[in-house]
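Running low. Invent one:
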Amino acid sequence: MKIKIVVLCAVFVMAFSAVHFVEPAAASTPKGYLIDHGTKYWTDSGDGSKCKVTWKTYWYSKNVRKVYESYYGKDDNGKWHSYGTQLVTMYKVSKTKMKLKYQWPEAGVNYISYIKTKMNTRNFYWKVYRPKISYVL
């Protein structure tokens, strides 16, 4: 009986020490959940070139969403070439105000704007932002 108790205690000690070492690795993973992704194609009205945008949208919390967008253009040989990426972060900062942070990593440019809206980030994304994704660059 004493051996079973000692073995059981040893198993618990090993399990808790394993959790202790695994926890910091789990904290470094991204917290966002993929909620939407897609691709849109269109023809540029200026020069008639073919364009494409792909995006992934992540939900981080009730008040924060991030949209990662990549823009592409088609050359004369039919190959797609990247024109750049954009990260848009939506924050609901008050009952009537939303903060939009635009980042272009290749250019090192950040831009912040505030919009007066009563919509939360979910409704704003689906009703306002997502339908206009192909026009944002």
The radius of gyration is 23 Å. Residues 18-29 have pLDDT under 50 and may be disordered.
